[in-house]
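help with this record:
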Amino acid sequence: MRLDELAQHLTGPYYEPATRHGSAGTATRRMSLAGASALRVGGGRSAAPHQDTPWSWHLPPVPQHEPPRSTPPKPRYDYDAVARLAGELTQPPEGDYKVAMVNLLKRDRRRWSVYPLLAAALLFEVIFLVWLMLPSHYPAGLFGWVRYLSYFLVASVALIEVMRLVNVATLARATARASDPVPVVPEPGHRVAFLTSIVPGKEPVSMAEKTLAAAKDLVYDGTVDLWLLDEGDDDEVKAMCARLGVHHFTRRGIERWNTERGSFKAKTKHGNYNAWLDAHGTGYDFWVSVDTDHVPHPQMVQRLLGYFRDPDVAFVVGPQVYGNYDNFVTKASESQQYLFHSVLQRAGNAWRAPMFVGTNNAVRISALRDIGGLADSITEDAATSLVWHSRRNPATGRRYESIYTPDVLAVGEGPSGWSDYFTQQNRWARGTNEIVVRGSHGALARLPWGQRLHYRLLMSYYPSAALSWLLGNLNVMLYLLTGAGGVRVSASVWLMLYVNAAVLQVGIYFWNRRYNVSPHEEVGSSGALGMLVSVLSAPMYVVALLDAVRGRNVPFAITPKGTAAGTDTWRVFRMNIGWGVLMLAGLGAAQLLGHTHPAMTSWALLTVLISFCPVAIWGLGRLRAR
């Protein structure tokens, strides 16, 4: 390596240049681990290096003089360390192999502090709910429609608190059962397909090239073929594949792979992948897949495939993190996912049933073919998970299992604007609500009770968030306009119990932050940003729930990436603004009608604040950018 290249390596951004190996004229490589290591250490940079990736081998620091910087450098992140969060690879024990699990609390010396916290959070929430619903707190002396309206409001308050109790129970159960798998060395000699896809016009070709160029560094003692699944049969995409030596696949123009619904539904991710599975799946034992924007770590195949020594493991998934960690929306979006990827998915390991995640995964192809491919859903991940776990492996007679590893083995690009973020949240919420409202109940009923409860609790988040926002604001609005109220309780007692229950719930959230898998959030950070954007997304969750209930056909929406990402305007926030304006109108009417109870007025003002908060954050960001 020349000195100027060394300086570039050490002073570049957190997407550091990586040394490339292997021929650009072939997509099939076979190498031993020793050979791969030798190549990685001794390889040199070509005259025209590939695009930067997050992964690179590390050189010792050397003294150098840097020119003055007009802006501070982007921080470096130790991606190699977080790629081994589950521990070092070990040799599997002799005999029949089953993936071993290690409970997080059992290896945590501070675990005794969380048990009282879990018990107190559940106890206070139950006490609060029982106290709130005491008959003495029901409205009395009312007649006619006001009486029935008040009883409706009491029932809605009860439902909101039951959903909050379910959320606390979900978090407490996940905290107690979260586990990590013990990683083992994979069997050599398998045929692996590395897959990613592209929708030209929505995802930049340069982004796919960066991902595929990094995939040429994947380490595995077997055959790894690189594939790009092109929805557009684009000439620029095909030229890039030829340049990198990557297999190009497209279903465009083939009628049987472009149907209105079903496994090969047109313009959907699952349809694209199922078409490739139908055409080429029999030639491989496993696939390792990432979204277009997710750059794989060189050890991705090596660290995922070992779990398939267990013949019942159908798929392995890892966490989702965002490399463009340089703006408010991306930071908040990654923080929001902490609970799912750091706690809930790990809890799924206790029942061998973490949810399938499409952003980065490894799949046993025979198991996928056994269930007929990825499920037809706007979020194929959750629907496919349920089908998989409801089936038995014909080779062993046991149920298919899944594994979640905390290893960060791919770094993606998160939504960088509010439009992209709301699109993502709406799609995830709509897909989950679709399963809850309309389908997969048969698959759920066939699951063992532990897995069934895990999935029901997991999928309760989006509908409960939507219903809590909808019913809570309906309560407030009906009071402002009619004066009718729900439960009648002492304000001081209510405040004491509510605050205690809320603080304990948040306390569990904070306690679990020690298990955060994100390499970007600072150690000891609170995760408050994630909680904030979850609240700000409530209007989007309401839309997603109503669409699912009405059965409205919503097309699959890709979160735009790179230069294809959208530019925010005030119209992005029209749902939030609508809720804020509606509540302001209610407050104005309440002043004229004399319905000015301090507690209800405060809740109305809080709704206005939440509704306009994302607009204010966006506006302040624009002012700072000028």
